[in-house]
Every structure is written in structure tokens, then in C-alpha cells.
Design goal:
The structure is a single chain. The chain has 186 residues and is mainly α. 63% of the residues lie in helices and 0% in strands. The protein has helices at 6-16, 20-40, 45-54, 68-76, 80-88, 100-120, 131-139, 149-159, 163-174, 178-181. The radius of gyration is 15 Å and the shape is globular.
Length: 186
């Protein structure tokens, strides 16, 4: 349960995140998180979506303080569950992902970005993207080199979902929004 609405979250993201690239990433993770809620925790779609949308909201303006600003903002609005998920979405911070929404965000963040990167290099974009192609690209450490493959592995393990299944869900979640996300291909 959350007191925030998705519209509240969008307004904050727009206020704190001027760059379109990070906004698109936030939107993609929001869509993935909504799909994960449908698959793993029906009825919690809004909670999961807001966590996905806001997970990097403070990164662009305050990279040295990320995620502390957004976590504090969420806690100040009695959104402890979302705050904890955002705090745990990067394992190097040492905050354990204890709730399903936290585990889902950890699993979704890097892999959603990676799936989008796969779409950018395909003429058919997401329309022709298959999970096998994504899994093959994951093995190529030079492709999307900044994506932390270990984070993906840890996230999938914590969530209890095979990477292939998560990739399928991400493709399913993003495909209807391909034009908006810039992953439709040429």
C-alpha cells in the first residue's frame, strides 16, 4: 500500500530529473516493475511502479548523495517500503533487499537498462528482440560494459526467477511502449 500516486511520482521525477535519458530509464523500470507485480504480487502494481519510477530520481542532480535524497523524501512521506526498496536497489550500498518490491527493483533495474541497450543496436528494436539474444549479449562483457552483470545475477537469485524469464517479462512490459522509450527500431 502506498499513499503516493503514480502522478505524484511523475511530478517529482520531472522536477528532480531534467534529462530525458534518465527519465526514459525510470519509465522503463516503472513498466518492468508493474509487470513484475502482476506476475509476483498482484494488487501491488502501483507500489512496484512508483518504486521503479523513483529509484534514480535524485541521481542526476545529486549523484554524490544518491540514493539518500530520494530515500529521505520517501521516508518523509511515510513511504518506508518504497524507501527501503530504493535504498537496496544497488547491492554495493550494503542495504539488504528484504521485501518483494526491493528484490524486484534490484532484479529489474540493470536488466531493464540492458534490454533497452539491446534494442538500440537492432534494426527491429524490441519488435525482433528475443530472450536468447539478450542472454547472449549478457555474456559479451564489452557490450553495455557499465551494466553490472553481478547485480542482475543477484537480483534474479533473490527474486527466485530465472534470468530468461525476467527478460521475457521485461520485453513484454516494454514492447507496447517502444515508441515512447525510443526502442522501436528503424
Amino acid at each position: 500500500m502506498t499513499n503516493l500516486t503514480i502522478e505524484d511520482a511523475r511530478q517529482l521525477l520531472e522536477a528532480w530529473t531534467p534529462g530525458q535519458a534518465l527519465r526514459k530509464h525510470a519509465r522503463a523500470v516503472e513498466l518492468t516493475m508493474r509487470k513484475l507485480a502482476l506476475e509476483l504480487s498482484p494488487g501491488n502494481e502501483e507500489l512496484f511502479a512508483i518504486a521503479g519510477l523513483l529509484h534514480d530520481a535524485d541521481y542526476e542532480q545529486w549523484p554524490d548523495e544518491h540514493p539518500h535524497r530520494i530515500v529521505a523524501w520517501l521516508r518523509g512521506r511515510d513511504e518506508a517500503t518504497i524507501a527501503a526498496a530504493v535504498a537496496a536497489h544497488y547491492t554495493h550500498w550494503g542495504v539488504p533487499a528484504e521485501t518483494l518490491v526491493a528484490k524486484a527493483l534490484l532484479a529489474a533495474d540493470e536488466l531493464t537498462g540492458f534490454v533497452c541497450a539491446c534494442c538500440y543496436v537492432r534494426p527491429g528494436g524490441i519488435r525482433t528482440l528475443e530472450p536468447a539474444s539478450v542472454l547472449k549479449k549478457l555474456k559479451d562483457k564489452k557490450f553495455a560494459a557499465k551494466v553490472d552483470r553481478r547485480e542482475i545475477e543477484i537480483g534474479c537469485q533473490l527474486l527466485g526467477v530465472e534470468t530468461r524469464q525476467l527478460v521475457e517479462w521485461i520485453i513484454c512490459a516494454l514492447a507496447p511502449h517502444a515508441l515512447e522509450l525510443g526502442i522501436e527500431g528503424s
